Amino acid sequence: MAGGVTSMDSFLMKFFHEVYERKHEVKENNYCKYDNEYLQLFTSSLYLAAIVASFAASLFCKRFGRKPTIQAASIFFLLGAILDAAALNIYMLIAGRLFLGAGVGFGNQAVPLFISEIAPARYRGGLNICFQLLITVGILVANVINYGTSQLQEYGWRISLGGAAVPAIILLVGSFIIVETPTSLIERGKLEAGLKTLRRIRGVHDVDREFEEILHATELAKKVETNSFRNLMKRSSRPQLICGTILQVFQQFTGINVIMFYAPVLFQTMGFGSSASLLSAVVTGLVNVISTLVAIFTVDRFGRRVLLLESVFQMLIAQSVMGGILMKFLQSTNEMPQLYAKIVVLLVCVFVAGFAWSWGPLGWLIPSEIFPLETRNAGFFFAVSMNMLCTFLIAQAFLSMLCRMRSGIFFFFSAWIVLMGLFAGFFLPETKGIPIDEMNERAWKKHWFWKRYFDEEESPAPAHLEWKDTMTRN
Fold first, then answer.
1. pLDDT of amino acid 231
2. CA-to-CA distance for 423 and 164, rounded, in angstroms?
3. Which domain range does residue 145 map to?
4. Which of 222, 299, 325, 355 could form a disulfide with 125 if both were Cys (CB 3.0 to 4.6 A apart)?
């Protein structure tokens, strides 16, 4: 994690000497020690690259398939890790982050679609959240590595940044083992390969019904598909587009990346030493992993909306109390009493837990399952791009916001949590257990608000229903 590296003195001395000196000034403002545009750019540049890469990935994913897109992502990750580990100056450092951002853009475009398209509907939520689970495991491992390498005076940060090469290699090797999704194969005219792959991943020979449904969904998509981005602008595509993108805005404006990116920085601001702050980040990373496991076992049982709404109350309370404690006990130049600093760490864990079993994984799951085939790549591109844009904005602005808003920044994010709760309660339909190609009929057309966006001319019957009607007439 970049936040752990940016708290290391050896890293700051080499690339951000001004921040290093400010950090060790006794009377420096607690909230402004790390306020530096280039330090923020080191973190945020990854997400700026991911926005551009997401567009290229959406086209690449449609033309060549999900599997090659995942392979491309792993190569970008590997190149970025090598550049950052070998960085001699700020330009090499940021170039490495840009390659990592390209990997994020390609990976986030392909992997959730891959999982949604190969998973049976009744297990789709849990399997898709496995993607988020592995991300949280990666965050935990990164925090543990940062804690260990922080003891190495000169090269610890190189080991931390270069460690990203290990999961990149694993992803690259794994990408040659996995199969392409049946939907992608059929979409590109490889019907026999699609049928063979469907039989392989289902473990049974009799998959004719599901194959026909995918085939007819593909044919139906081709009838209306001159340009998937143009189709996304149709009135009947607005509900999915609005919900898919606004989920990404809300996911980032919970303030989660304030915690995950800058946890060591925040904990040092509250008076923890470098090692203690990194250890606290390890604890929050462990909570993140455990809570994501909770989501895997509950999302297909209780549904998406229940988890989203419960977590809103949990995160709102934690965020508000944190802000109150910091407002009262952390002034510009004092050190927060240890008891209250520990309470803040506990509240951070409560906040991370709520996010990790709800808005974190579901922010990726829901957009991957709500778009019909004719707009799926384009729609998911907009969702991924919005996520990367909001992440970039938060990462680029947070340290400056912390300096100027101080503890008020937590109340800023609390207000967003209230808005997202209202959105989930009134405007988000439940998608649990609904096959992707039936989503319009069974979710959007039955929703009290979004049903007005559908009519017979713009929203043809799902492929499996059209196929049934044809069979009946015959």
1. 81
2. 36
3. 34-473
4. 299
Q: Is the pLDDT of residue 38 over 90?
A: no
For residue 27, pLDDT over 90 is answered with no
How many alpha carbons fall within 13 Å on the CB side of residue 12? 22
User: Is residue 17 a part of any domain in this protein?
Assistant: no
Q: Model confidence over 101-115: pLDDT tens digits?
A: 999 889 988 888 888
CATH number for the domain spanning 167: value is 1.20.1250.20
CA distance 466 to 474: 12
Look-up of token digits 């988020």: 132
Residue by residue, DSSP assigns 203-222 as TSS--HHHHHHHHHHHHHHH
Can you spell out the DSSP letters for 86-155? T--SHHHHHHHHHHHHHHHHHHHHHHHHHHHHHS-GGGHHHHHHHHHHHHHHHHHHHHHHHHHHTTSTTT
* 5 found inside a domain: no
**pLDDT for position 457:** 46
Cβ contact 14:317 at 8 Å: no
Taking each helix axis from N to C terminus, what angle separates 238-252 and 256-269, rounded to the nearest 10 degrees? 10
The number of helices, as runs of H, and strands, as runs of E, in the chain is 23, 0
> Do the Cβ atoms of 432 and 121 come closer than 8 Å?
no
Question: For helices 256-269 and 338-356, what crossing angle results, to 10°?
Answer: 170
What domain count does the chain have? Answer: 1
pLDDT (0 to 100) of residue 3: 59
Does residue 2 lie in a domain region?
no
